Amino acid sequence: MPETHPKKDVGRPASNLPPLSLHIPEPRYRPGDTPDFGDIDIPAVEATPRPGEATKPDAMRELSYGLVRVLDFDGQAKGQWDPKLTPERLRIMLRYMMLVRAFDDRMFRAQRQGKTSFYMKCTGEEATSVASTMALDRGDMCFPSYRQQGILIARDYPLIQMMNQIYSNRGDHLLGRQLPIMYSAPEHGFFSVSGNLATQYPQAVGWAMASASKGDSRIATVWCGEGSSAEGDFHSALTFATVYNAPVIFNVVNNQWAISSFSGFAGSERTTFAARAVGYGIAGLRIDGNDPLAVYAATQWAADRARTNNGPTLIEHFTYRSEGHSTSDDPSAYRAADEATAWPLGDPIARLRQHLETLGEWDTERHEAQAKELDELVKTTQKQSEKLGILGHGMHQPFETMFEDVFEEMPWHLQEQCAQMLAEQEAKFGPNWKPE
Ligand SMILES: Cc1ncc(C[n+]2csc(CCOP(=O)(O)OP(=O)(O)O)c2C)c(N)n1
């Protein structure tokens, strides 16, 4: 064999080769640019076949690269994926999504008024949690990220408890120990939200495996953002799920942005997020996440598949984060202002409303009345919650509770710290002081 690289040049570029270089992803639009999403491939609604729930992942690869849709842009439900929901069920779905939006708007304002330290909206992504939850059974276990308040709302969790948690007040059943919006409601099939991205993925698979090993019929379902899919936990979870055929649904909410990092940094320039499934031998569906009926249909398909021991599914919800990442974020610093309005797949609430109106099952008057009613409901609940305290008004949990409930018996060093804290509290506020 002739030697192509003389030994003395090992480790250096050979003179006739170009220097190696890295690709650094760069979003297409920055502040001041006019976004144009005209090149996003949106196949016709009828173009996507719906395979049987037991189809082998290999035989449905193209669904990881396409876009499952049900609602066309005229508000008609079409194609094989149409879940054919009754008008009553569609109205319930619309109501839940509108309630999520009303709740988000008011809690965002509460943060701006200094009543809580933090809030996260899911504007434009309501379908990815509400429609998905509605396609599950009540006993199925949800492992959310921080942007799935729609699960709690679609499971009729009391709004006041969400607010008490956001205000970390006297009524907060998490005793002020979690960051606002990091709810926990296991009795509603809602696992504790964690700020450590993607940790819920292996936890969901573990829960699903336990359910199967006990011979139960409940499945697990888990959400994360596209940015979080770059975490190692995401990949080990998919490995466990495929090896043991765990009854789990993986949702990747691809809202294009991970705070200020666009989806390219998680790999979107190379392939779709649904296509991650292909490498693991898992069923993958890429769907229009702003189409509530597509979200419902895909979840129903995946739930039936999991429940009949046909394995896990990865669903990529192709959507857009219309507002800031959180109340701590200012998206105008890193992305074009008009991206949300230029997004070609519209808004999920507007699309379901249009569909119901097209069916003759809804109208402007009813829509406006419902918006007003939900706003009132949120406002009244907020007043009740605020009676139990808001940020900085002293109606928080007693400080010593922060030392409790971790160890069965409090270790000596925590006992010392707690005693020191109580002594300082007494010196400052006098004996028998309690939060208001
Ligand atoms: C392990 C870990 N890394 C980084 C962070 C900081 N962080 C919080 S949210 C976020 C962006 C996540 O984006 P994505 O997963 O796309 O979800 P989205 O917020 O868009 O819904 C980052 C990087 C974190 N909380 N945990």
From TrEMBL:
Entry EC no(s): 1.2.4.4
GO molecular function, one term: branched-chain 2-oxo acid dehydrogenase activity
Leading EC class: oxidoreductase
A biological process term (GO) from this entry: branched-chain amino acid catabolic process
Keyword match Oxidoreductase: yes
Domain Dehydrogenase E1 component: start-end pairs: 95-387
Location of region: Disordered: 1-40
This protein's record includes keyword Oxidoreductase: yes
Gene3D superfamilies, A to Z: 3.40.50.970
Record keywords: Oxidoreductase, Thiamine pyrophosphate
Cofactor section: thiamine diphosphate
Residue ranges of every copy of the 2-oxoisovalerate dehydrogenase E1 alpha subunit N-terminal domain listed in the record: 18-58
Reaction catalyzed: N(6)-[(R)-lipoyl]-L-lysyl-[protein] + 3-methyl-2-oxobutanoate + H(+) = N(6)-[(R)-S(8)-2-methylpropanoyldihydrolipoyl]-L-lysyl-[protein] + CO2
Biased composition (Basic and acidic residues): 1-11
Entries under InterPro entries matching the protein: Alpha-ketoacid_DH_E1_comp (IPR050771), DH_E1 (IPR001017), Oxoisoval_DH_suAlpha_N_dom (IPR022593), THDP-binding (IPR029061)
Superkingdom in the source lineage: Bacteria
Entry's transmembrane regions: none
Purpose: The branched-chain alpha-keto dehydrogenase complex catalyzes the overall conversion of alpha-keto acids to acyl-CoA and CO(2). It contains multiple copies of three enzymatic components: branched-chain alpha-keto acid decarboxylase (E1), lipoamide acyltransferase (E2) and lipoamide dehydrogenase (E3).
Sequence similarity: Belongs to the BCKDHA family.
The name this protein goes by in its record: 2-oxoisovalerate dehydrogenase subunit alpha
Organism, as annotated: Sphingopyxis italica
